[in-house]
Amino acid sequence: MPSEPSDRSEPLVAEHVLEFPGGYTRSVGPVIGRFLTELRDGRLVGVRTASGGVLFPPAEYDADGEAVTDEYVEVGPGGTVTSWSWVSRPRATHPLDRPFAWALIRPDGADTALLHALDVGTFEPGADPPRSLRTGMRVRPSFRAERTGSIRDIACFRPDVTMITAPSRAEYRLNAGRALTRFLDGVSEGRLLGHRCDVCGKVYVPMRGLCPVDGVPTTEEVEVADTGTVTTFAVNNIPDPRAPQVPFVSAYILLDGSDISLLALVAGIDADRVRMGMRVKAAWKPREEWGRTMENIRWFEPTGEPDVPFDAIKEYL
Amino acid sequence: MGEPCAVIGVGQTEYRTKRTDVSIAGLVREAALRALEDAGLTFKDIDAVVIGKAPDLFEGVMMPEAYLADALGARGKPMIRVHTAGSVGGSTALVAASLVQAGVHDRVLVVAWEKQSESNATWALSTHPPLSPTIVVGAGGYFAPHIRAYMRRTGAPDHIGTLVAVKDRQNALKNPYAHLRIPGISREMVESTPMLWEPIRYLETCPSSDGAAAMVLASESAARRAPNPPAWVHGTAMRSEPIFFAGRDTVSPQAGKDCAADVYRQAGITDPRRELDCAEVYVPFSWYEPMWLENLGFCGEGEGWKLTESGATGLDGDIPWNASGGVLSSNPIGASGLIRFAEAALQVRGLAGEHQVEGARRALGHAYGGGAQFYAMWVVGSDRP
Ligand SMILES: [Zn+2]
After folding, report:
1. Chains A, B: CB pairs < 8 Å
2. What is the residue range of A264's domain?
3. Pairwise CB contact (< 8 Å): A174 & B136
4. Residue A169 maps to a domain
5. Which spans are transmembrane here (chain B) (predicted)?
């Protein structure tokens, strides 16, 4: 039966592998042999040339065609990057499976450089080279644990350690204390409580159980209104998870009946329309969401009353 | 005031966003060695070491003074750590001076530092503990309402903060250690930067810096043997007040006024604008120049912004403020106060280089910290008091 005519536009391809079974058996000679033997022991050695330089990695004959001497010189392990090329998408046969650099690395004490892989950290495929990767960068070889006398005994080079991250964490159990507990109990019932000082007569909301001016304990409880006056404020353009949006207004609010302003959010008005002297009222969350926390008050909102004249608030700034 | 005390050595590191080339120990040592070199001394000549920095939370190293004893050659010597928030650099110098003035020591090394790049100061200053939350975000969030109150109280026009932001950065171009060096800095450049915490614009704030500063303070006999001219201490004062109390003047705190009055009395100064030749004052947000001009008595209340506007505080004005570029140009927080004190000393020693105020013989060094709660000041002069 005659076959269908093939589609002539499709190129005809076939896979082919050329691999000498077991690999070539290559004699390396005395110079390269010394280099690889030292490498197997975890050391880098170069060889002195007739003109006095140190060739690394060693070669049997230098660039002038002269045979090298039989003097071997330990170099590195620290070295300097003299040039590099970034590989943002490594191929299957590359020594690293994440973005890395091919780098020319001149070990200390050597006059020439070795080409090897430089691992500068973990990056997404396709990433740009990091700013830390630069000519002059200090690096060291990372040797494999199992070594055979091969250039692959060096897994890669890595930058010197210049920075560590130092995690630190402290956990606390904060005790509110008597005064703050009493204040937050009040807030849980929708009341704002303070203390009046026996000596100066000033009312502190929230109360602290003491007067910071007179240094005496305070006990006389006073309930103040949830309305007040903005004394001064900042318009914050830096986002904050506790604020409804950016910009947001943090304001000192002098509650009616208190002698000290407290800091709170002001919302329900454009930030650029908030004024010193503006009258505001607490915007409470729905009662079923209340707890022993100031978060029961979402923020303060304008009441629409006329502003308080500056003279009436200037003593509270 | 006790025995005479003089600054015989000053050392500073370059102030940078990141000093990743050194450890904290390497950073403080760099400043200390430069101060010792200026004083013609080695660590062996030092009797005691006083060290200051801002909260430990900034670098997460608890009690760094213990770890830094070796770097500062303190083995077998008294070592004291001082902490008064942002004013700490100033307080540290004053604790060191008191050891000399009390006749306890002849040569005291004083060092202050911060390595802000190791974390984030706004994070460290806004830890938001539960139960009593506050909405303040960082130092700017705290100070912005008080700046607004100053503007309202005095009727200062909006551009005054911009003038200071430009002036201090122009001065910084003459200071090789300064962090922010912005060629061609101008009002337009400052005004084009965003409002972070209105009324504070981005370029009206201080940078975050890594850096350290050091001084060698000496008794009279030690100062007489110093290779370079000394700066004599004419007065020292510290004051503090609670951050929160009814009737507090947060724009011009009483503790600052009292501290200034005390240091002027010791130095015999009745008119600071006339009797001082220059001042290094802690101005982390540009508006604090006019605010502190009033608080420190360089003019009457409500007049500070006019003094700034007139150019009096410029390098060529009659009372230059922050010829070094000030905190607005370099801010390794814990060191910032000590840098003010050290720059005041450099001025009266005639060693301030390109930002030298010509003929300066008496200068004020000032620092404040916390919620404008802690104050440290000194007056130094070319002549032995
Ligand atoms: Zn009282």
Report:
1. 103
2. 226-317
3. no
4. no
5. none
pLDDT in tens, B17-47: 999 889 999 999 999 999 999 999 999 999 9
CB contact set of A164 (below 8 Å; sequence gap of 6+): none
CB contact under 8 A, A265 and B246: no
Same domain, A282 and A293: yes
Chain B residues in contact with A252 by the CB 8 A cut-off are: 145
Please count the structural domains in chain A.
3
Whether residue A137 sits in one domain with residue A253: no
A84 and A181 share one domain = no
Domains defined for chain B, CATH in brackets = 5-120+207-381 (3.40.47.10)
Predicted local distance difference test score (pLDDT) of residue A245: 86
Distance in angstroms between the alpha carbons of the first and the last residue of chain B: 11
Closest Cβ–Cβ partner in B145, B153, B244 for A233: B145
Per-residue pLDDT tens digits for A177-236: 999 999 999 999 999 999 999 999 999 999 999 999 999 999 999 999 999 999 999 999
> In B, which residues are within 8 Å of A174 by CB distance?
129-131
A152 shares a domain with A48 = yes
Tell me if A206 and B134 make a contact (CB, 8 A cut-off): no
Partners of B9 in the β-ladder: B216
Does residue A2 lie in a domain region? no
Residue B382: DSSP 8-state: S
The long-range contacts involving A116-119, CB below 8 angstroms and separated by at least 24 positions, are: A116/A141, A116/A151, A116/A154, A116/A156, A116/A157, A117/A156, A117/A157, A118/A81, A118/A84, A118/A156, A118/A157, A118/A158, A118/A159, A119/A156, A119/A157, A119/A158
Same domain, A240 and A257: yes
Q: Which residues from A are below 8 Å from B134, CB to CB?
A: 263
What is the Cβ-side half-sphere exposure of residue B280, based on CA atoms within 13 angstroms?
37
pTM here? 0.89
Q: B353 by DSSP, 3-state: which?
A: helix
Integer Cα distance of B286 and A106 in angstroms: 50
Examine the domain organization and report whether A65 and A150 are in the same domain: yes
User: Which residue does chain B place closest to A264, by CA atoms?
Assistant: B135
CA gap B158, A134 in Å, rounded: 45
User: Cα(A209) to centroid of ligand 1, in Å?
Assistant: 11
Does ipTM come in above 0.85?
Answer: yes
Q: Which of A202, A224, A246 corresponds to the end of one domain? A: A224
Q: Is residue A168 part of a domain?
A: no
| Residues A147 and A185 occupy one common structural domain | no
Q: pLDDT tens digits, residue range B141-181?
A: 899 999 999 999 999 999 999 999 999 999 999 999 999 99
In this structure, the answer to whether residues A43 and A69 fall within a common structural domain is: yes
How would you classify the pairing of strands B362-369 and B278-280? parallel
Domain boundary among A191, A208, A224: A224
Q: For residue A2, is pLDDT > 60?
A: no
Distance, CA of B52 to CA of B93 (rounded, Å): 9
